[in-house]
Write a structure and sequence with these properties.
Chain B is mainly alpha-helical and 499 residues long. In chain B, 76% of the residues lie in helices and 1% in strands. Chain B has one domain. In chain C, 74% of the residues are buried. The chains are: A mainly alpha (176), B mainly alpha (499), C mainly alpha (99). At the A-B interface, helix 4, helix 5 and helix 6 of A face helix 4, helix 5, helix 6, helix 7 and helix 9 of B.
């Protein structure tokens, strides 16, 4: 099992680098591209772990939709395309300290729980039909609830971003 | 060929999700109404109110079945539980949503931002709260929490052109998403430690004592408590609350302060009491600590506030502390007290914010303490109602607030947690100070400035029928639960019986 | 493949997200940090799923992806509202209320 391990290390190092650059870069557009690298790396990790359908969903939804959404957001708020100062506040040292402490706690707890030797044994990749079957039987209720989440956010985003028609802008000056 | 035959579809237990189904369905109906023809949003509000009542009827029927036939059960592969606890809180969510709908119409018409979509989002949010109240699976907890939160982010920013409302929406969204991520990490760790997200199954695993990873589970537990602590606005995770409550439209705040807290407490209680019951000795001290700092922090910080909405925000934090006290006591009487407190709190906070919304006038200009001077003379009825709610929140005997505090502290005394009891009493006394201060302000004469006397120039507040109904209901139940609390106490006692 | 490598990678990315959340003042960048955290959790879930040999982890990850998309949509809508009003998306410029 040398192949997957080498693949893991390459993916992990690329992701770690892109992640660090994502939270430190001073260029908003670059940040979105670094985010894309991290998301693609996550998809590759999913493939390594035998979650093929999830990996491709990750590519479609995250890279295809969410990163594009972010780029729209960046452009609509007219970020400068070069370096922009003032992306960070002045709490970087404090933030870094918190992050390091949280990392040590997590990593410590996980290494203590699973040790260095716990292996993931993959008999086979998950097939789409297994996933679909499980999703539509055991998980059908949260699945429906998630569809409500998407519907609600759709309505919410439209009502927030839309301008009212002039005929609907009624100025009610009277106190009711 | 027929694939449908090959999949053994689980039997649909429609009764188990009837209240949620009615609320979600009503929301869809409202959207369809808007698509077909934009009518006066008052009609959408009417449909929404009918929907919440219908949902409440189903919830009541569920409650009756569960408590009389005594057949609490799990439904949909253990995703949700149908037991006394869920039916009770689903019913309370219906009440909060009903009051939220009634208080909204007049306010949004006054502000010129009445859009029918408001009621759809409010019902979706309430639907999420009800799922949260019934959730028996960590996946369901997460999805329900997101459903209710995402709607509330939008509702906080509902007054789109008002920069305070935008700011409230942005702050709530960024901190809410952050807290969801923390909660999710906790859930992932619990799943990693046990291999399941079903809370009932998790409890079985712990009782069979095959946990390899107590450290992982404990870390996950702490993260879940922190994540839900954000949602119920417990100190030290409360920093978003005053800004959001001050900036968001007041009827939204009334709904958010009641509904989101019900859902947060339901999730917290279910996860700790069902899933992590085996770790009671670990989470109980955490809850005790959280309750102590929340009660004291909320009460003390409220004193410094000069804005009434901000003051009520800190007061709601202090109330969260009292409710947490009931859960932290670890006794059945304490939990019963906490559930009673939740109901009393819903009526008090919805009523108080309802009055504040009326008194703030168009554009929410008058919310500072000084604007309330002489209110008894200018608006005698509204001032009396507000004073009544403030007395109730302070815990004056004869109101539901007193019974609620008494019920919680009884549970704490049963558990012999004298520190918690002492701190609770001290915090009640401190909080009485700032409630009564507002009442005193309403008696005071306005400061005589040279120049025009602005307050006198304001026309009298006009009342819409829906607002009257909502305020009468809240006042009635606040009195009724203060004088004849036994019925609800018995209900709350039955609700502590988990499935 | 060692389980702990995946978990450590996930913890590292999560902490980068925590850092970004605390150190950034641009609202779009904060949203990106939150996405980073959610991704880290997804890696965690899928790795645990592979360890326990059940589908819960993967299915949970689907839900997280859907919810993240909804959150970003609403988040950017609110950010655009604020930008329309004040031509800035820095969260510490957004500070009208003090108490």
């Amino acid at each position: 099992m040398v192949g997957p391990n080498i693949a893991f290390w390459i993916i992990a190092l690329v992701m770690a680098y892109a992640g660090v650059r994502l939270v430190t870069t001073r260029n908003v557009v670059h940040a979105a591209l670094y985010l894309m690298i991290v998301l693609a790396g996550t998809a590759a990790i999913f493939l390594l772990l035998g979650a093929e359908f999830l990996g491709w969903t990750q590519v479609l939804v995250y890279i295809g939709a969410i990163v594009v959404l972010f780029l729209f957001g960046v452009m609509l708020t007219r970020a400068t395309y070069g370096e922009s100062k003032g992306l960070d506040n002045d709490q970087r040292v404090l933030a870094a300290t918190v992050a390091v402490i949280v990392f040590l706690v997590f990593a410590g707890a996980m290494w203590k729980a699973f040790g260095a030797s716990t292996e993931i044994v993959l008999e086979k990749s998950t097939t789409v039909s297994e996933l679909g079957r499980d999703l539509m039987t055991n998980w059908v209720l949260p699945f429906e609830a998630v569809s409500l989440v998407l519907l609600a956010s759709l309505i919410g985003a439209i009502t927030l971003a839309r301008r009212d028609d002039p005929e609907h802008v009624r100025d009610r000056g009277v106190e009711r | 060929m027929l694939i449908a035959d090959a999949i053994a579809a689980p039997p649909s237990d429609w009764w188990a999700i009837a209240p949620q189904l009615v609320l979600g369905g009503t929301a869809v109906v409202i959207i369809l109404m808007i698509c077909v023809k934009r009518v006066d949003p008052g009609w959408n509000a009417l449909v929404a109110a009918v929907g919440t009542v219908a949902s409440g009827v189903f919830a009541w029927e569920q409650w009756r079945q569960v408590t009389t036939d005594a057949n609490p059960r799990l439904a949909y592969s253990g995703m949700i539980a149908v037991d006394g606890f869920s039916a009770f809180l689903v019913l309370v969510v219906c009440v909060a949503a009903f009051l939220g709908v009634l208080l909204a119409d007049q306010y949004f018409k006054r502000e010129g931002i009445d859009r029918g979509e408001y009621y759809a989002l409010l019902l979706f949010s309430a639907c999420g709260m009800q799922f949260m109240a019934a959730a028996n699976n960590l996946v369901m907890v997460f999805v329900a929490l997101e459903l209710l939160s995402i709607c509330l982010y939008v509702l906080s920013a509902w007054n789109r052109d008002d920069s305070r409302s935008q700011e409230a929406g942005a702050k709530y969204l960024l901190l809410g998403a952050y807290s969801s991520a923390i909660l999710l990490f906790g859930i992932a760790l619990l799943y990693g430690g046990t291999g399941t997200t079903n809370l009932a199954r998790m409890a079985e695993i712990f009782s069979e004592n095959v946990t390899r990873e107590p450290g992982l589970v404990l870390l996950g537990m702490v993260f879940v408590i922190v994540g839900l602590g954000f949602k119920i606005a417990a100190v030290p995770f409360h920093m978003w609350t005053p800004d959001v409550y001050q900036g968001a439209p007041t009827p939204v705040v009334g709904f958010m302060a009641s509904g989101a807290k019900i859902a947060g407490f339901a999730g917290l209680f279910r996860v700790l009491e069902t899933g992590l019951a085996a770790f009671e000795f670990d989470w109980q001290p955490l809850l005790v600590g959280l309750a102590i700092v929340t009660m004291l922090g909320g009460s003390i910080l409220a004193i410094a506030q000069r804005d009434v909405k901000r003051m009520l925000a800190y007061s709601s934090i202090a109330h969260a502390g009292f409710i947490l006290t009931g859960l932290a006591s670890g006794t059945a009487a304490g939990v019963r007290g906490a559930l009673f407190y939740l109901v009393a709190y819903v009526f008090m906070i919805a009523g108080a914010f309802g009055v504040v919304a009326l008194l703030a006038r168009r554009g929410e200009r008058y919310t500072s303490l000084d604007d309330y001077r002489d209110m008894f003379r200018r608006e005698p009825v509204l001032a009396t109602v507000l004073a009544f709610f403030l007395f109730a929140m302070a815990g004056i005997p004869g109101t539901s607030g007193f019974v609620a505090k008494f019920a919680v502290f009884t549970g704490v005394a049963d558990a012999h947690q004298w520190v918690l009891l002492t701190v609770g009493t001290v915090a009640s006394v401190i909080s009485a100070y700032f409630y009564l201060r507002l009442v005193v302000y309403m008696y005071m004469r306005p400061e005589v400035d040279e120049g025009e006397a602005q307050p006198a120039a304001l026309p009298r507040v006009r009342w819409a029928p829906a607002t009257v109904v909502a305020l009468v209901l809240t006042v009635f139940f606040t009195i009724q639960l203060g004088i004849l609390p036994q019925g609800l106490l018995d209900m709350a006692g039955k609700a502590t019986l988990l499935f | 493949m060692k389980l702990n490598l995946f978990l450590t990678l996930s913890a590292f990315l999560f902490c980068l997200g925590v850092y970004g959340m605390l150190a950034r003042r641009n609202a779009v960048m904060i949203l990106m940090s939150i996405e980073l955290m959610l991704n880290a959790i997804n890696i965690n879930l899928v790795a645990f799923g592979a360890l326990h040999g059940n589908l819960t982890g993967q299915i949970f990850a689907f839900f997280v992806i859907a919810v993240a998309a909804a959150e970003v949509g609403i988040g950017l809508a609110i950010v655009l509202l604020i930008y329309r009003n004040r031509a800035s998306v820095n969260v510490d410029d957004v500070d009208l209320m003090k108490g």
